[in-house]
Design goal:
With 344 residues, this protein is an alpha/beta fold. The protein folds into 2 domains: 93 residues, 3-Layer(aba) Sandwich (Udp-n-acetylmuramoylalanyl-d-glutamate--2,6- Diaminopimelate Ligase, Chain: A, domain 1); 213 residues, UDP N-Acetylglucosamine Acyltransferase, domain 1 (3 Solenoid), CATH 2.160.10. The protein contains 4 helices and 40 strands. A 12-stranded mixed β-sheet has the order 8-11-14-17-20-25-28-31-34-37-39-40. The longest helix has 30 residues. The relative contact order is 0.06.
Length: 344
Amino acid sequence: MEFTVKQIAVLLGGEIQGSKEDKINKVSKIQEGEAGAISFLANPQYEKYIYDTQATAVLVNKSFVPKKELKTTLIVVEDPYSAFSTLLEEYQRLTSFNKKGIEQPSFIHGNTTIGEDIYVGAFAYISENVSIGKNCIIYPQVFIGDNVKIGDNVILYPGVKILQNSVVGNYCTINSGAVIGSPGFGFAPQADGTYKDIPQVGNVVLQDHVNIGANTTIDCATTGSTIIEAGVKLDNLIQIAHNVKIGKNTVMAAMTGVAGSTEIGENCMIGGQVAISGHGKIPNKTQIAGNSGVRGNFTEEGKTIMGSPAIDIRDFKRIFVVYKKLPELLRKIQKLEKEFLNNQ
């Protein structure tokens, strides 16, 4: 797949400084650029590479002023990182997502509605009363359960399982091994020490532009819905329990677990290996540092918290300064104790 610098600039709404007709056929890091590649400069720490890069073109922002002569063509845009992301999306669409048709062997129940320009890979299984929108890509070995509704332009990678009654919005991407709608972890303790299963009869709702990482699981609600709102991005290996609600444009890193009936606000950023206890509330724009343990409710928006139990990051840092001094303080106390005993 090959494009001219001019074609890319038109796609990104950029201004060209250099040759318009040079050919681009790959993308690369700026420090690994080679002829035919396009890269980007977003972080000033990487500016040193732009003067020696062999990349044919580099995306830069409008404030960039070269300090010496360049060998590469510049495409000037508002936000190089976002522009490069747009370019990668288009590249991926043209090179990877051009599959169409239904491969065999696969199974599609007769009572299923399928939109135009869909791809269904071999060994996929689509159950009864399923609705799938247009321009969807369903890779091999995907399972879609009864009564599932899937919007337009959805990508389901190999091995995805979407269980009964789940709803997937438009432009969602679900990566390999993810399970949407698995039964919630609900058991009632009995007098004899055993546990009685609580049927999980709700569903999972993914709104538009949600991205789910590989081997992430989202449990269906006991009743009602587990809701992942528009624009949420979940990394690999995340566990979302029943009746959780995650607000718009929240991002969550790998190996995080969210217990049942938790409400997470919009535009939150949650680091890796965070444990969030059940029935709590996390306000909008909260940032949670990795390895934190979050308990109870927080009320003030825009806070950064860390630790276990998680507290305001400023308090955590003050406490940690004291914590690092504990060995020294212990030695002083032991010395004072020894001196006191010797003076008795």
